[in-house]
């Protein structure tokens, strides 16, 4: 998924990687693919000088990432109009080496910096929430009991532009020191992935109702099971 | 895993849940179980007023959480002696309801606030790094090429006390509005979990070398596969 030599320069010095810069990427194709492959992000905001990191769902439409919650949600209220950091990480594997220090992990991650903004226009907000449902469960929005104005009012949706972002990707086996290669211990990679269990319908779902189709962020990787 | 009514009060007002407080827990048994069930955390620090959220491995020994990286790592350098937020989240399932707003997720998460501190004493640092390897791969430390002083020097380990922390846990099915229960759409839960792929030895591992035993944070859930 990622070229070994980066061709897109960092859009700012704040998102230039200092540690292991060879694992850095700033092209939108790499960034978007990671954002779309996981439904969960961690949002960093500052309250009275103290950082808070809050796990939350995210979805992407075009050049923006979106998050949602209660209109009175603290993280979303603080984030509105201020600089946040939103991070998405996927742990793809454990890397076992012959020395302790060369143990590592395979991963894909994105960090986005910028000012988040609350969407005020009700129609736009409704369209984004539809996009959220559809991104996880394509075709589901029209099958649901329609959203009410009260529900829309109770909900805040924030957008964050993808202008200042970086990706970091590691893959492959352990990078042992040459002199250690004959050390007799198992070394290699243990792949990890998110697996879906069998869908469990609740007691009110009529028998024979088809379970939902799943969107990209939660669909099983083709050939993985 | 979690009592439905919380009996342990929040240790500070900063870690008292405002949204869905009934899902909050402050007892160490609940907090420790979540920290030990996942290897990955997200560390929040503030640099020039800007929050940064960095994904990193963590491990716990007793009343402290530990993280590690390069001695020159920016996140670790900034975190030393300052207030950080470390968040661990596990996504256990997707919850599908009959109305858009009642869609949700099952999850377990912990947020820890406090001052992190770099471990200066080399023997203590070495013992903690051994603890890290052993927590993921019990019995592996003694099988590895011994760690050198240079490697130890290149590495920073930070500790964070678990004094000011909270957990939040959701489980169960959708919480639909009573009037929607007959709406004819599939509703229920799609469980998610982390699955391990088959371990892939690298080219230098002698044939017949046994693959590693796995510790709690990465072992498959009993009965899950
Ligand atoms: C699953 C996972 C586990 C990890 N475990 C560890 C660990 O245990 N120890 C460890 O030292 N590191 C770990 N890393 C890497 C870690 O996220 C940082 O990249 C690394 O620690 C360097 O941090 P720094 O603050 O010095 O970054 P710097 O290189 O100083 O960061 C400068 C800029 O580079 C970009 N950047 C840095 N890291 C990332 C990233 N992960 N994703 C996207 N952009 C980034 C950001 O824009 C940041 O502002 C892990 C990463 C992942 C995804
Ligand atoms: C996997 C996952 C996905 C989530 N998705 C969403 C989403 O899409 N939208 C949404 O609104 N919320 C989501 N949440 C819940 C979210 O993490 C917050 O709890 C919620 O948004 C309230 O945020 P707040 O800033 O108003 O918290 P407040 O209740 O104001 O926070 C006060 C204090 O409560 C504690 N606290 C709050 N949240 C957590 C937590 N998650 N874990 C441990 N302690 C906590 C902290 O100590 C915090 O300082 C998700 C949580 C998880 C784990
Ligand atoms: C199983 C145990 C371990 C795991 C899973 C692990 C994982 C990681 C990961 C994922 C990184 C980030 C690499 C990157 O930025 O791309 C890292 C960095 C680092 N680790 Fe570990 N590690 C382990 C044990 C150790 C030990 C025991 C030491 C010390 C001897 C150590 C020293 C370091 C150092 C110095 C870095 C910084 C690399 C850099 O930023 O240039 N690690 N580790
Ligand atoms: C598939 C889509 C959705 C998912 C996966 C989802 C998930 C979540 C999760 C996990 C929470 C946190 C609950 C908690 O704090 O314990 C939440 C909160 C919330 N969601 Fe959604 N949601 C979805 C769609 C929507 C939609 C479409 C709306 C708007 C109509 C909405 C409105 C809200 C509100 C108002 C809260 C705040 C609850 C509170 O803090 O009291 N959600 N959502």
How would you sum up this structure, described in words?
Two copies of one chain form a homodimer. Chain A is α+β, with helices and mostly antiparallel strands and 225 residues long. The first copy, chain A, is built from four helices and eleven strands. Chain A has helices at residues 28-37, 74-79, 122-136, 149-153; strands at residues 24-25, 40-47, 50-57, 59-61, 64-70, 83-96, 104-118, 155-161, 164-170, 188-196, 200-201. In chain A, strands 1, 2, 3, 4, 5, 6, 7, 8, 9 and 10 form a ten-stranded antiparallel β-sheet that branches. In chain A, strand 4 and strand 5 (64-70) form a beta hairpin. The model of chain A has no long low-confidence stretch (mean pLDDT 95). The complex binds flavin-adenine dinucleotide (2 copies) and protoporphyrin IX containing FE (2 copies). One flavin-adenine dinucleotide sits between chains A (14-19, 89, 91, 105, 107, 109-111, 166-168) and B (40, 52, 54-57, 68-70, 73-75). Chains A, B: Residues 1-26 are annotated as: Disordered. Chains A, B: Residues 16-26 have a biased composition (Basic residues). Chains A, B: This is Pyridoxamine 5'-phosphate oxidase family protein. Chains A, B: It holds the Pfam family Pyridox_ox_2.
What is the strand and helix layout of this fold?
2 copies of one chain form a homodimer.
Chain A: E1 24-25, H1 28-37, E2 40-47, E3 50-57, E4 59-61, E5 64-70, H2 74-79, E6 83-96, E7 104-118, H3 122-136, H4 149-153, E8 155-161, E9 164-170, E10 188-196, E11 200-201
The structure holds flavin-adenine dinucleotide (2 copies) and protoporphyrin IX containing FE (HEM) (2 copies).
């Amino acid at each position: 998924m990622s070229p070994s030599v980066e061709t897109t320069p960092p859009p700012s010095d704040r998102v230039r990687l200092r540690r292991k810069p060879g694992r850095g990427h700033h092209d939108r194709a790499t960034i978007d693919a990671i954002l779309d492959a996981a439904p969960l992000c961690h949002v960093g905001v500052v309250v009275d000088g103290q950082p808070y990191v809050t796990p939350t769902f995210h979805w992407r439409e075009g050049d923006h990432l979106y998050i949602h919650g209660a209109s009175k949600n603290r993280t979303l209220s603080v984030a509105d109009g201020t600089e946040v950091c939103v991070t998405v990480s996927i742990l793809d594997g454990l890397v076992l080496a012959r020395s302790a220090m060369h143990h590592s992990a395979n991963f894909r991650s994105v960090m986005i910096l910028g000012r988040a903004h609350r969407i005020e226009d009700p129609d736009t907000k409704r369209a984004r929430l539809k996009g959220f449902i559809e991104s996880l469960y394509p075709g589901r929005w029209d099958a649901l009991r329609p959203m009410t104005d009260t529900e829309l009012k109770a909900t805040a949706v924030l957008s964050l532009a993808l202008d200042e972002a970086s990706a970091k990707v590691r893959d492959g086996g352990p990078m042992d020191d040459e002199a250690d290669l004959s050390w007799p211990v198992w070394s290699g990679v243990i792949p990890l992935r998110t697996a879906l269990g069998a869908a469990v319908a609740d007691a009110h779902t009529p028998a024979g109702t088809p379970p939902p189709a799943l969107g990209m962020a939660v669909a099983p990787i083709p050939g993985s099971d």
